[in-house]
Design goal:
CATH superfamily of the largest domain: GAF domain
CATH topology of the largest domain: Beta-Lactamase
Strand content: 15-25%
Number of strands: 7
Structural class: alpha+beta
Low-confidence stretches: 1-34, 267-284
Helix content: 40-55%
């Protein structure tokens, strides 16, 4: 299949309008100057404020949340609307479609993703279930890579620390962090967290979730380690079952060790990134 891309001269009117708006914003100050940095700081303050407001923000609330003067917040918001980075509906501002397009191109830990894709793909094929590598960012689970065989079970996404910590993935990721870096959720006792922290660095360690988070769903998860000893993420298999099948725990921990061994070796990681059609984008 041949995919053609339009030349700059064939840009649609909407794109040309956005480009003109972008140039207008850049004219406020070139990147690298104090004025340019102030404009960019203000624009990102607006976007950061909107990122945490699912119901949008009116101008007064936007100024307060972004820490900008009301006139500055209004000027920047309207410029971002012209760029498509923000949208305004009924006098309320929301994150715009252009940010979604940009965000979709972002890859968490690209080298780690390259190192993990092959092993995660193999794990999904062997188990016949959803397999993934995830990390914990701002108390939210984040996919690094995943493979979902056809017909794989959909699992609701946990959205708060307590729910996350009930999953095998969450238990691994919280337990791998130092006590000074994270406040452990209270769904498990301090003794249970302590025991898990003491055992999680065993090369064959894995955590099994027997319907602790979602009825009818079992998970098995094991940590992946950076060469310096920090946790890079958790490999997890998610399946619809009363109990995980025999041998799955060993497969998951083996996959985690494979990825840990590959991290920091870009040549090997890149060669593993060419996969059959079973490999899928983040399942959601």
């Amino acid at each position: 299949m041949t995919i053609s891309t339009p030349s700059p001269s064939s840009s649609p009117p909407a794109a040309r309008g956005a480009d003109s708006a972008a140039k207008a914003v850049l004219r406020l100050g070139p990147v690298g100057t104090t004025a340019g940095r102030c404009v960019l700081d203000g624009a990102f303050a607006v976007l950061d404020a909107l990122a945490y407001a699912e119901g949008g923000l009116g101008l007064t609330a936007l100024a307060r949340a972004s820490g900008l003067a009301k006139t500055s917040a209004h000027r920047l918001a309207e410029q971002l609307v012209a760029l498509g980075a923000v949208q305004c509906v009924e006098h309320r501002y929301y994150v715009g479609p252009r940010m979604q397009r940009i965000g979709q191109r972002w890859q968490p830990d690209p080298l780690l993703r390259q190192a993990a894709r092959g092993p995660v793909h193999s794990l999904a094929a062997q188990s016949g279930a959803l397999a993934c590598l995830r990390d914990l960012h701002d108390n939210r689970l984040r996919y690094i890579c995943a493979t979902a065989p056809h017909g794989a079970t959909y699992v609701p996404e946990p959205s708060d620390p307590e729910s996350i910590a009930r999953t095998a993935t969450g238990r691994v990721l919280y337990a791998c962090q130092s006590a000074a870096d994270v406040l452990l959720p209270g769904c498990w006792t301090p003794r249970e967290w302590q025991n898990l922290r003491q055992s999680i660095r065993d090369p064959h360690a894995a955590v099994v979730d027997r319907q602790d988070a979602v009825s009818g769903i079992c998970c098995v998860s094991a940590p992946v380690w950076w060469p310096a000893g920090a946790c890079a993420g958790a490999v997890t298999v998610v399946l619809q079952a009363t109990n995980p099948p025999a041998g799955l725990r060993d497969r998951v921990s083996h996959t985690a060790r494979r990825i840990s061994a590959s991290v920091g070796q870009p040549g090997r990681a890149a060669s593993a990134s060419v996969l059959p059609a079973l490999d899928a984008a983040t399942p959601r």
